[in-house]
Amino acid sequence: MRILLTGASGQVGWELARSLMPLGEVIVPARERCDLARPETLAALVAETGPTAIVNAAAYTAVDRAESEEALARRINAEAVAELAAAARRAGALLVHYSTDYVFDGSKPAAYVEDDPVAPLNAYGRSKLAGEQAIAASGCDHLIFRTTWVYAARGANFLLTMLRLGAERDVLRVVADQFGAPTWARNIADASALALAQAVRERAAGHFRSGLFHLAGGGETSWHGFAEEIFAQVRARRPDLALRVGAVEAIPSTAYPTPAARPLNSRLDQRAVAERFGIVMPCWRAALGRCLDELGGGRR
Ligand SMILES: NC(=O)C1=CN([C@@H]2O[C@H](COP(=O)(O)OP(=O)(O)OC[C@H]3O[C@@H](n4cnc5c(N)ncnc54)[C@H](OP(=O)(O)O)[C@@H]3O)[C@@H](O)[C@H]2O)C=CC1
Ligand SMILES: Cc1cn([C@H]2C[C@H](O)[C@@H](COP(=O)(O)OP(=O)(O)O[C@H]3O[C@@H](C)C(=O)[C@@H](O)[C@H]3O)O2)c(=O)[nH]c1=O
Ligand SMILES: [Mg+2]
């Protein structure tokens, strides 16, 4: 099969380029041919490529910047997604797409299930929700995975921010009242490949059903808990990575003002993805350990 992959330089896309390899030919278009900020160019890209599946790992992910760039976030996360979905439908391709816990307002006292009411608190969340809705409305065959708190050994993420700040400062202050699960991009990519392979078999057999699934690291913690675990694991298994930080102070979100509001509860119930695909994501602590093992030496 032929898979058109967008966002291959991002955290999830980088891992997808590897995880999708055993499934077929992975086509990674250059940015000049695939710019989601120019949605009108995407129909031709898909028509020329003729993919079996489109895996869209490209997105506008700068949560705070989106508050002042909502139109651009919307173009990339919603209007371009609508074009990809329409093109997928015309080409008879399956669309695999990613969304976020930030579609929820975080007020639910338990983990979110897929059909819980959405109510994004910020511009990024609104743009991602519009992307989900555009895919559902398009009628293309699709799988949407809502994930959370993504990190990887490369890219812009909380793990690498903590390693950088932890090497520079004695004390860090990290919010302890936002709960969720850190998710290693590698695990998302491997799970996506398993699901895509099953979906392709289902389509060939004529019983494929489109759907949206929650997919995040196993277990739960706060950003503060994540930071503490990062430093504990670095001390235990990566003494070569210099750390200066002593204490990680637990603070409330109100003590860490940001342009974008963030949900206090980002926990995603994952029973649906287990039932449909037999996927059980690894515990976030174990995944963090594997990722740390792969980090290059020195500071990043
Ligand atoms: N990061 C997170 O914590 C979470 C992410 N998600 C979702 O998961 C998916 C993957 O996220 P993640 O891997 O973290 O994202 P990254 O920010 O790491 O990567 C984004 C990718 O999109 C590309 N991109 C950005 N703008 C455009 C554009 N105009 N045209 C083409 N490509 C573009 C980037 O290319 P370049 O490098 O050239 O800019 C990069 O390859 C996204 O849908 C995101 O919304 C969901 C929950 C949490
Ligand atoms: C750097 C830093 C952050 N924080 C807080 C801010 C925030 O509440 C939390 C995480 O910070 P980040 O900027 O990494 O978070 P953020 O960019 O909001 O991460 C989100 O990205 C998008 C793309 C998603 O889809 C979400 O699932 C989520 O992963 O930690 C501290 O409390 N102290 C610190 O020193
Ligand atoms: Mg961020």
From TrEMBL:
Keywords: NADP, Oxidoreductase. Its EC number is 1.1.1.133. Signal peptide: none annotated. Gene3D superfamilies: NAD(P)-binding Rossmann-like Domain (3.40.50.720), UDP-galactose 4-epimerase, domain 1 (3.90.25.10). It comes from the Bacteria. Residues 1-295 form the RmlD-like substrate binding domain. InterPro entries: dTDP_dehydrorham_reduct, NAD(P)-bd_dom_sf, RmlD-like-bd. CDD domains: dTDP_HR_like_SDR_e. Belongs to the dTDP-4-dehydrorhamnose reductase family. This is dTDP-4-dehydrorhamnose reductase. It comes from Pseudothauera lacus.
